[in-house]
Amino acid sequence: MTALTGSESKTSRTHPSPRTYSRWASLVVLCAGTLMTILDGNIVTVAMPAIQSDLGFSGPGLAWVVNAYLIPFGGLLLLIGRLGDLVGRKRMFTTGLAVFTAASVLCGIATSQGMLIAARAVQGIGGAMASAVVLGMLFALFPEPRELARAIAVFSAVGAGGGALGTFLGGALTQALNWHWIFLINLPIGIVAWLAAVRVLAPEQGAGLGRGADYPGAALVTGALMLTVYVIIGTGTRPLATTLLLAALALALFVAFTVRQARAARPLLRLRLFRSRLLTGANAVQILMIGTMFGFQFIGALYVQRVLGFSELLTGTAFLPAPVAVGVLMLGLSARTIGRFGAYRVLLAGLVLIVVGMALLSRAPADGAYLTDVLPPLLLLAAGFAAAMPALTGLAMSGAREEDAGLASGLFNTTQVVGGSLGLAVLSTLAAGRTDELLAKGAELIPATAEGYQLAFRTGALIAVAALALASVVLRSGKKPGQDDAPAPAPAQVTG
After folding, report:
1. What was the pLDDT predicted at 263?
2. Other beta carbons within 10 Å of 365
3. Keywords on this record (predicted)?
4. Are the C-beta atoms of 313 and 369 separated by less than 8 Å?
5. Structural domain boundaries in the chain
6. Which residues of the chain fall below pLDDT 50?
């Protein structure tokens, strides 16, 4: 698919060609499907107390409403990304939408703990199928760098806004109706998205399962990723010895998978993928950045509820400025800023804003106020994420060959899940530990809770500093401002 240039580009601004229209319509479909899965990841959080009361979950048992989704979602992204390259990304995406929508209905009508947890696990599988191949499809749809930058800006804005919007909708639906509707709302959305995907997305022929279906390797990496997510999300809730044993087992599975891929005739994951400095470095930076942002979203919501005394619905409303700011900045400035200054410089600027935002939050006191202690850093974090995420996505995907785009997309999504889970586990454990320590010394609840959150925010700022340092060293391209150093897909190279 060739890019429009010269006079063709000028004409397309007023009279889009059918090809141009279908590509941007495809982007809308991909964004709609992704938004549904992202919303579901956050919409559950605010409804957890209502679910616990209705179905009788214990405290530890309630965590599995989230864990049952995250473990298959995070564990299967890499495998499904590769399978999407083999069987066709459109087929994988549409199948994922169907599975996710059906599982959402099962969640919505669940009347027991077991039924809800099982349906959430199926949701995680469907979410992984729909999410793992999206970036690869975007890079195939928009081969011209500037158009690709705009497409990534739109996609990133939807993803970033979906998280905060999920918090708001979760509170609104639970308070106005009941918790069942946080899942049932996916039925009409899913049906419309599936029909649109079938009609709008261009059919494509995958390479075929015979070219890379390494089933022993798939079992090893899926087991390793699922176990890794399980270890991370359970940190602080089990004995240290058990955590270390499980972590060692996950590491052993990763080592076995690596050995398998080096020797397999048709490996699931071509190890040469990691020779790309951009792809490997961007994924490492993303783990740190998403860890910071996901931890902020969770701890920040707890701060406004438990320290400032906000209700569930008011908490969701308090975070709405973030997706609005992200959407405006990504859609209005992101592509042009990357085109002018380059993805590397835009990424660094975004990470600096994230560091400053987290540092300001670390000063939020027990007697704080939303307008002075929460909103300013919230807007800084939103601006930083709006700058950093599209730039980081372009840098990561530009390091992958076309035939590996689905796998690279799955890898990028996997590091998001791992980073988010790791950041949440670390920051929430630190906050709880500091609060318990202060309470044991006789401190009052709200000041002790606020100080625990301050420690979490300070740690988040340090993690963001680490992301900034790593990005400044590993992702430096050496290109001048204004050059399209990213996003730019690598040229197609067909291999046997």
Report:
1. 79
2. 12
3. Antibiotic resistance, Cell membrane, Membrane, Transmembrane, Transmembrane helix, Transport
4. no
5. 17-201+268-474, 213-267
6. 1-21, 478-496
